[in-house]
Design brief:
Layout: E1 3-7, H1 23-26, E2 32-36, H2 42-52, E3 57-62, H3 64-77, E4 83-88, H4 94-100, E5 116-120, E6 123-127
Helix pairs in contact: 2-3
Length: 145
């Protein structure tokens, strides 16, 4: 198994004290390559490149944004059979929290999830938790009179 751990050092509060990996993962550090993201979109680039180079397992250590980028990198690569794991170190970790509510499997990376896709103006994005659209948070002001 070739494992790439993609971590986002800007993610959430927990990362500030250092990245703490689950025990089952720390026992395999000799088989894990670790790359830190450096800018927005970097996790997607790293994941896509890793898939094309034969990595079969990619673990996203970050928040929901890091998970989103890694998922897109994997799916955009079109490489079949790549597994994804999550180490939730973001602020809210909504997606990891929702997965934790599902019945656990004894086998690592065995949980299947639904993935959606959206295409807008020729630009395709994948999502696993929620999809958002860029609307204004406040209503526009009405003309007086």
């Amino acid at each position: 198994m070739k494992i790439l751990l993609i971590s986002n050092p800007a993610a959430g509060k927990r990362f500030k004290t250092g990245l703490v990996l689950p025990g089952w993962l720390t026992s395999q550090t000799d088989r894990i390559e670790h790359r830190r993201t450096e800018y927005a979109g970097h996790a997607q680039e790293l994941a896509e490149e890793a898939c094309l180079q034969g990595v079969d397992t990619i673990i996203a250590a970050g928040g929901d944004g890091t998970i989103h980028e890694v998922l897109n990198g994997i799916l955009i690569s079109s490489v079949a059979g790549v597994r994804m794991g999550i180490v939730p170190v973001g602020t809210a970790n909504d997606y990891a929290y929702s997965l934790a509510k599902r019945p656990a499997s004894q086998e690592r990376f065995a949980q299947r999830v639904d993935v959606g896709a959206m295409t807008c103006f020729g630009h395709r994005r994948y999502f696993a938790n929620v999809a958002g659209w860029d609307f204004l948070a406040e209503p526009p002001s009405l003309p007086e009179g």
